[in-house]
């Protein structure tokens, strides 16, 4: 069962990375998180349950350093979702230290001859208790074996609690009125992710502790700890299949937008029967949030005219609306079926048409009108104008 679960985790990580890693950078952390969890499960299976000498020799200790990345990847995913900033800070490099330290400590074993590894694997498969006493790395010289083994789940638990605290602080700092239906959905996903992770790691941590301290066969018997650990792992690895909108990221909304732009909530006909609470709950993430983006985008372009700035790009527009750039990218790519630049050029062409129709060409040149409309060059102006209207600006003038 552990092998199938780890394969599921690897598949999830590949799906997230392949389909979303380029557009939604936060998915990279989530992808690596699922991959490292899966590799940890594979390592545990190889060390405790496998009867294959080759599998044991290939996996055990050689891949263990990746388990120290589980916690950092989880925290970086939570932080990047809540802040809409996937970039690592210089101080974040410190989180790689446990993994690098273990890798350095394991290098002597990693480069031991294959015959030595297979011989050791054969001996340990036939005597599982020797696994607790054999020193795979020189870390066991400085610390006890139990400390080394417990360090992995303990660090994951610390990072999980840290992430939960980060999420709670985020929620406390937000006004209830600014939480959208989609955001509530995302918060539900984050709590599921963190909850299953915490359940899995706490149960596993206690199991490892019991196996060393009490010399019990906790890993070879069906018990409450094993059931809880398995439930956490299953819930963790399968949860993305029940929360597909996680690929959109978490909507952000702040006071500056409310002040900068008038209310864009669609009006409701007074003759229309009010929606019930049940019907409101049926609104999905995409429909409501996409409608919000559409309304705010159109309102901004109409009233603030940011397209008159030649250097306007989706990042700057994102700052203006206080809507994550990758959400805007999804909206233009999947809903409007055009690039943000083409959308801006359409607005600029409409503005240039009004200037021409108002007779501004009597005082200034067409090139000047293009500049006033936000085009960075005469060539870009003429190309965009002809694409939109089918004729050049000079022909449209007459």
Helix content: 55-70%
Termini distance? Answer: 75 Å
- Class by SSE composition: mainly alpha
Strand proportion, as a percent range, falls in under 5%
Integer count of domains: 2
Number of helices: 19
Uncertain residue ranges: 175-182, 250-285
Total E-strand runs: 0
Radius of gyration: 28 Å
Could you give the order of the helices and strands? HHHHHHHHHHHHHHHHHHH
For the biggest sheet, the summary is:
none
**What is the general shape?**
elongated
- Look at the structure and give the mean pLDDT: 81
Provide a short characterization of the protein structure:
This protein has 398 residues and is an all-alpha fold. Helix content is 67%, strand content 0%. 32% of the residues are buried.
Keywords:
398 residues, mainly alpha, Arc Repressor Mutant, subunit A, 19 helices
Task: Give your account of this protein's structure.
By secondary structure, the protein is mostly helical. The chain has two domains: 247 residues; 60 residues, Orthogonal Bundle (Arc Repressor Mutant, subunit A). The chain contains 19 helices and no strands. Helix 9 crosses helix 13. The radius of gyration is 28 Å and the shape is elongated. About 11% of the residues have low confidence.
């Amino acid at each position: 069962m552990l092998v199938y679960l780890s394969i599921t985790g690897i598949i999830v990580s590949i799906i997230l990375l392949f389909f979303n890693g380029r557009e939604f950078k936060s998915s990279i952390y989530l992808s690596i998180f699922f991959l490292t969890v899966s590799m940890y499960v594979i390592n545990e299976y190889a060390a405790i349950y496998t009867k294959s000498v080759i599998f044991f020799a290939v996996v055990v200790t050689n891949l263990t350093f990746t388990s120290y990345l589980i916690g950092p990847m989880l925290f970086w995913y939570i932080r990047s979702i809540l802040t809409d900033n996937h970039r690592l800070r210089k101080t974040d490099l410190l989180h790689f230290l446990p993994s690098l330290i273990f890798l350095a400590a394991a290098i002597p074993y990693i480069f031991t001859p294959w015959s030595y590894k297979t011989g050791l694997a054969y001996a340990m498969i036939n005597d599982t208790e020797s696994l607790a006493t054999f020193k795979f790395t020189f870390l066991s010289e400085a610390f006890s074996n139990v400390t080394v083994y417990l360090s992995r789940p303990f660090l994951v638990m610390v990072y999980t609690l840290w992430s939960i605290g980060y999420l709670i602080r985020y929620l406390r700092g937000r006004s209830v009125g600014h939480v959208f239906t989609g955001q509530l959905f995302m918060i539900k996903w984050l709590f599921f992710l963190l909850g299953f992770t915490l359940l899995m790691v706490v149960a596993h941590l206690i199991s490892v502790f019991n196996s060393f301290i009490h010399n019990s066969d906790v890993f070879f018997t069906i018990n409450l700890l094993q059931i809880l650990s398995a439930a956490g792992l299953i819930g963790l690895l399968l949860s993305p299949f029940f929360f597909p909108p996680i690929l959109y990221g978490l909507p952000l909304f702040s006071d500056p937008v409310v002040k900068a732009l008038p209310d864009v909530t669609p009006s409701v006909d007074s003759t229309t029967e009010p929606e019930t609470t049940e019907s409101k709950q049926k609104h999905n993430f995409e429909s409501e949030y996409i409608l919000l983006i559409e309304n705010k985008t159109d309102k901004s372009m109409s009233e603030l005219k940011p397209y008159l700035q030649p250097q306007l790009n989706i990042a700057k527009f994102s700052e203006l609306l206080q809507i994550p750039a990758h959400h805007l990218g999804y909206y233009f790519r999947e809903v409007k079926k055009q690039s943000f630049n083409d959308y801006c050029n359409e607005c600029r062409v409409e503005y240039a048409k009004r200037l021409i129709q108002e007779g501004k060409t009597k005082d200034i040149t067409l090139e000047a009108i293009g500049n006033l409309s936000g085009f960075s060059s005469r060539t870009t102006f003429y190309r965009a104008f002809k694409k939109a209207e089918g004729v050049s600006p000079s022909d449209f003038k007459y």
